[in-house]
Amino acid sequence: MSADSGNQTGRAFFGRRKGKALRERQARNLAELLPRLALDPASPRPAALATLFAADVEHFRLEIGFGGGEHLMHRVRENPATGFIGIEPFVNSMAKLLGEVEVDPPGNLRLYDDDAVDILDWLPDGSLDQIDLLYPDPWPKRKHWKRRFVSQANLARFHRVLKPGGLFCFASDIDTYVNWTLLHCRSHGGFAWTARQAQDWLTPFAGWPSTRYEAKARREGRGSAYLTFRRLP
Hints:
alpha/beta, methyltransferase, 233 residues
C-alpha cells in the first residue's frame, strides 16, 4: 500500500475503551486523581509547556497510548527535569497508572484520557523534544490499516509540535506496521530516519525498560523494531 493511503484526518479509531469492571480504589482515582493531572485541550493553548507542570522542567516529551504505563513511569522517574504528557484512552490502563502514582503524583507528569489528536492540535508549535508511539494498535487486517495512528495527517501534527531536531520514536513487533511507518515518514519528507545499520533499529532505545507488550511478542516468536526519526527544519 502506498504511503499516502489511510486515515487522512488523523483522528484515532479506538477499539474498546473499557475492559473488566474497576475496583473501588481505581474508580476513585479516576474520579478524584485524574482531574488533578489531566490536561484540558478546551482551555487556551499554553504559551509555554513548563507552566503545565508542578515540577521545574526543561524538556518535554509525549507518549501516545502508554498501555500499562511501565515505560512512561520508568521515564518519568529517571528524567525529573523532563515534563511528560501521557495519553491513554483505555480506562483500565489509565486506572492502572493512577494506582502507581496515587500516593505521591510526580510533578513532571500530566495525563489525557481521550484522543491524542486533541492534545496534538492544542500544543504550541515546536514545543516537544520527543514523541513516543510504542506498540500502537497495529490494526492487522488490511481493510483496517486506515485506522493506524501513523498517517500523513498525524505526521504533520508531529512535525508541527516537535522542535527542530526533536525525535519521533516508534516501536512495533508487526512488520507491516514498521514498513508502513517508514513509508509514511519518507513520503512526508519532514523526518529523517536515524538508522545507519540494521543493528540500529533492532536495538531497543537507550534506557529501554521493556514492556509487557514486548514480552508477549517475544513469547509468540516476534521480534521488535525500534525506529527513531529526527524532525527536519
